[in-house]
């Protein structure tokens, strides 16, 4: 039996070491890369947020990323939208965009979209796994028009919000309320509460509460300027009934129950909930004293976000005086005469001059026809008071004494998310 040459033995040893080292290298690569790949998947895998659009007024257009178009009509339920969708309103339409986690629960953001606005949902997602350290993301492109965004406080995973406009970017840093308006020559950003960073040019520009800035074409942000300020305090009921007076329930029939008016969390937001189940008339109101001279303000806008959950009376009763929700201003006109302006909302019944009129026929107040809203859906009402008073042929307020929210009827349930009286100098 012949001996194996030394050279061949050496080659076999080299080959053995090659396979051993190669195998060890592959093992190390797998041992290192698999955890990295798994961690990367756990960190960066996302799922869409639950994002939906409903028409607040008129007909709202929704363009999907595949090129199809659909319409959201007032009175219909909310429609889901995904990344790449564009929401369009004309002069007669407004819309609500709501953002929730995939499994529902706490509201992440609510966007009030006003008339003649085009806004695109670029990104709306959240990490799929709790393991991830990443934030939730909401990115929007506001091409033109006006929006107002509410970001409630959250105890869960942070939400990063960015709004891109033709003139720059707006990063919302904190929970709060923000108003953004885009016209051809500029973007205007107002921080009603919270904090925002504007990016256009070399350095980010920080905006704090009660500040406003302008981003011009091709320029850096300018400001801060004075912004619209809310004359109503605790309008979002963050501090329960602080600054508000809750009046005693008035019940027509002595053997019938009162109702309940409480501030509670609805989808994570502090909400005034007023509910009554019974026969005969009952009412309750809350009131805030303002005692504010408004004669020098350039603009005065009254805003309220609410939902009529249930209502038993048709329209606002036989005299038009029992709307489930009235918003009222007690004010002095330029002649010093004490006046009341009110606007009523209902969600059930058809107007009939004999049995259910569209206005309060027993009220000596400035008013327009009661406004029908969609039962069970969040609605926002926004009115510029000077224009509204002029339309009704009334003198505008010079001094506002107080604001009231009144709830009337037999059986009803109303939720008020926030109310504001925005003044701009």
Give an overview in words.
The chain has two helices and 32 strands. The chain is mainly β and 425 residues long. It has an 18-stranded mixed β-sheet that branches. The longest helix is centred in the first third of the chain and has 39 residues. The relative contact order is 0.11.
Describe the protein's topology.
Blueprint: H1 6-44, E1 46-48, E2 50-57, E3 59-63, E4 69-73, E5 79-80, E6 86-89, E7 94-100, E8 109-113, E9 117-127, E10 136-151, E11 159-165, E12 168-172, E13 176-183, E14 186-193, E15 196-199, E16 205-207, E17 211-216, E18 222-226, E19 229-230, E20 245-246, E21 250-251, E22 260-266, E23 269-276, E24 282-293, E25 299-311, E26 325-332, E27 338-346, E28 366-367, E29 371-372, E30 379-384, H2 385-391, E31 399-409, E32 412-424
Parallel strand pairs: 10-11, 27-28, 27-29
Antiparallel strand pairs: 1-9, 2-5, 2-7, 3-4, 3-6, 6-9, 7-8, 8-10, 9-10, 10-13, 11-12, 12-15, 13-14, 14-17, 15-16, 17-18, 19-32, 20-24, 21-24, 22-23, 23-32, 24-31, 25-30, 25-32, 26-27, 26-31
Q: What is the structural class?
A: mainly beta
Gap from first CA to last CA? 109 Å
- Unreliable residue runs: none
How many strands appear in the DSSP assignment? Answer: 32
Task: Give the count of structural domains.
Answer: 2
Give average pLDDT, whole number.
Answer: 89
CATH fold annotation of the largest domain: Jelly Rolls
Supply the number of helical segments: 2
CATH top level label of the largest domain: Mainly Beta
- Tell me the overall shape: elongated
CATH architecture field of the largest domain: Sandwich
């Amino acid at each position: 039996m012949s001996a194996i040459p030394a050279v061949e033995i050496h080659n076999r040893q080299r080959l053995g070491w090659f396979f051993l080292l190669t195998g060890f290298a592959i093992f190390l690569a797998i041992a290192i890369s698999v955890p990295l790949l798994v961690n990367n998947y756990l960190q960066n895998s996302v799922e869409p947020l639950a994002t939906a659009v409903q028409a607040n007024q008129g007909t709202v257009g929704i363009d999907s990323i595949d090129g199809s178009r659909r319409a959201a009509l007032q009175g219909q339920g909310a429609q889901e939208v995904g990344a790449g969708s564009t929401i369009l309103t004309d002069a007669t339409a407004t819309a609500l965009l709501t953002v929730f986690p995939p499994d529902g629960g706490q509201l992440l953001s609510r966007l009030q979209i006003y008339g003649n606005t085009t806004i695109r949902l670029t990104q709306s997602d959240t990490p799929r796994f709790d393991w991830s350290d990443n934030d939730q993301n909401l990115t929007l492109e506001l091409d033109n028009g006006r929006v107002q965004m509410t970001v409630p406080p959250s105890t869960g995973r942070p939400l990063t919000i960015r709004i891109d406009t033709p003139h720059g970017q707006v990063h919302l840093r904190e929970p709060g309320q923000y108003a953004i308006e885009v016209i051809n020559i500029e973007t205007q950003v107002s921080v009603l509460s919270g904090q925002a960073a504007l990016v256009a040019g070399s350095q980010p520009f920080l905006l704090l509460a009660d500040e406003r800035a302008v981003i011009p074409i091709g320029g850096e942000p300018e400001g801060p300027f004075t912004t619209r300020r809310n004359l109503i305090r605790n309008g979002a009921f963050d501090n329960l009934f602080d600054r508000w007076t809750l009046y005693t329930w008035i019940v027509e029939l002595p053997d019938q129950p009162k109702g309940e008016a409480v501030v509670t969390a609805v989808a994570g937001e502090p909400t005034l909930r007023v509910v009554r189940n019974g026969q005969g008339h009952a009412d309750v109101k809350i009131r805030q004293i303002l005692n504010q001279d408004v004669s020098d303000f350039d603009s005065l806008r009254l805003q309220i976000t609410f939902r009529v959950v249930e209502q038993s009376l048709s329209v606002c009763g036989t005299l038009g005086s029992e709307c489930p929700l009235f918003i009222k201003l007690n004010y002095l006109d330029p002649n010093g005469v004490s006046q009341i302006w009110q606007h009523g909302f209902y969600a059930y019944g058809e107007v009939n001059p004999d049995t259910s009129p569209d206005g309060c026929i027993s009220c000596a107040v400035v008013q327009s026809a009661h406004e029908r809203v969609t039962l069970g859906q969040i609605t926002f009402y926004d009115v510029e008071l000077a224009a509204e008073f002029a339309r009704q042929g009334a003198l505008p307020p010079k001094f506002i004494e107080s604001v009231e929210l009144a709830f009337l009827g037999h059986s009803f349930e109303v939720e008020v998310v926030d109310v504001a009286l925005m003044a701009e100098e």
